[in-house]
Amino acid sequence: MKPFVLLATRAEDEPADGEYALFLRGAGLEERELIRVRLEAEPMPRLDLDELSGIFVGGGPFNAADPPEEKSAVQRRVEEEFAALLDEVVARDFPFLGACYGVGTLGVHVGATIDRTYAEPVSVVPVTLTQDGAYDPLMAGMPDTFHAFVGHKEAIRSLPSTAVLLASSPGSPVQAFRVRSNVYATQFHPELDLDGIILRIHAYATYGYFSPDEVEQVIDTVRREPVSEPSRMLRNFVELHAR
């Protein structure tokens, strides 16, 4: 099988390593089958799509809607690299699944409106599939409504007509969308389990998602509802596109 690649942007080693482990487990891949590239540490290498089965994108600290003058040199580089990659990905309809930061990368590329209107605190939310989502092969076997982990400062306010809305939540109308047949992004985190989000809560306690003195309260919040379905999307993606 040709490998998949995970494009990551987390600068902190513990949550970065945890994210990679979660994608491996959720997708059912071995390390040799999922190449990790840490874009916060090095420029994106040239990716020969003919030698890959698909691309995953993890979450990260960058907000696409931030004013250009507030973006670091690393963020500006990463955004330029994603813009060039997505030109090829979308043109070829190459398998792509971006989680959380995938909304910022793919959303910008297709002309979505992204701002802070529909930010969601770190929490568990009910995500409901649209009619298109219910029939999409990426969502095969998933219930019409399921719980998922979220936590984001920006979100898509409106999608262009070239994108297909697949899922929504009460607080964020675009939780998942598709471009063409094989290019996807989710606002929620399909890779996360409870241990994974608790690790991130501790790692990002000073990043402005909540007050540092609210850590235990936020952990209590994410414990309230079981989250078991979203990782099915990762397995579906691999089953659909491994070659």
From TrEMBL:
Cited Pfam families: GATase
This protein's record includes keyword Ligase: yes
EC number: 6.3.5.2
InterPro entries tied to this protein: ChyE-like, Class_I_gatase-like, GATASE
Top-rank taxon, per record: Bacteria
Keywords from the named record: Ligase
Glutamine amidotransferase domain mapped to chain residues: 49-193
Enzyme class, UniProt record, top EC level: ligase
Molecular-function GO terms, alphabetical: GMP synthase (glutamine-hydrolyzing) activity
Keyword Isomerase: no
Protein name: GMP synthase (Glutamine-hydrolyzing)
